[in-house]
Amino acid sequence: xxxxxxxxxxxxxxxxxxxxxxxxxxxxxxxxxxxxxxxxxxxxxxxxxxxxxxxxxxxxxxxxxxxxxxxxxxxxxxxxxxxxxxxxxxxxxxxxxxxxxxxxxxxxxxxxxxxxxxxxxxxxxxxxxxxxxxxxxxxxxxxxxxxxxxxxxxxxxxxxxxxxxxxxxxxxxxxxxxxxxxxxxxxxxxxxxxxxxxxxxxxxxxxxxxxxxxxxxxxxxxxxxxxxxxxxx
Length: 233
Fold this sequence. Notes:
By secondary structure, the chain is α+β, with helices and mostly antiparallel strands.
């Protein structure tokens, strides 16, 4: 009997069944994406193809391990559900109450770790400030946001990169205004077919992984990037 397929089946079923992989509504982690196609596809209600994605699953496992460690400290909140705007909710990784700091964990490889030293991507930055808005609306005193890039391929945590800045509500509000504009555009089409054709032809980001998970994904070619390079890992 070959055992590997049995193991793979168990793990892949868990990856596909993971709640984060089944989320269909757009969340704070996506509203700042520079891929117009995928933002619009999400807002249009397109369903992503099921996929057993290993690297995101590893990141989810890391979050699950850190959560109880943070919860054991009275000054912290961990994995708290927050409402960023009507119909837009998300789960924030951590919040340090005394300093009013939102913290988001990112488990990343060498490429992203290097680029993080120059600052976060627009998508990550918007996500952090959006969680700040969610905490503010929940009554917390929010003062700053932070992203902790945890090194996936290093032997020491000291190789990680910690970025932070003062909380700026406008960063989240501008992203929300963009989402509202896209929603209005999608609602303006007379038929679903016309709307979907518009979404299909929107610009795509060269670094977007989600594009491959929709039915209109471009056909693969010999030059197609690997998952590792797409995710900047």
